[in-house]
Amino acid sequence: MSVTILLPDEVLADEGGDLQRQILELVALAGFKSGQLTTAQVCRILGLSSRLEAHEFLKEHGVPWVDDSVGEIEREIEELKRLAS
Q: Could you give the CA distance from residue 65 to residue 81 in angstroms, rounded to a whole number?
């Protein structure tokens, strides 16, 4: 699915910046922060080649990149405890 955003010409007269890229980054950051996007989806939106690149992007913007659910993390902790005993 594609989304089209209509902006006034004066907004698009962005000098020296890449407004389209900035908008994509804002969408990716907001979607990831809200839990609506995964790191894989952030990669696709921004054209990144790996999750490591997505993790670096998120880190640069002060966003923790761990996107596992609390339940998944708790299961992993229990499994590690079981394996360590």
A: 24
**Residue 45, token pair as written in the block:** 């939106």
- Spell 9-36 as b/e; 16+ CB within 10 A means b: eeeeeeeeeeeeeeeebebbbeebeeee
Instruction: With 0.85 as the threshold, say if the pTM is over it.
Output: no
Tokens for 62? 């002060």
DSSP structure class, residue 17 = S
Look at the chain and report how many structural domains it folds into. Answer: 1
For residue range 9-37, list pLDDT tens digits in order: 777 776 656 888 898 999 999 999 998 99
Q: Per the domain annotation, does 64 fall within a domain?
A: yes
Structural domain boundaries, residue 67 = 17-84
Residue 40 lies in a domain: yes
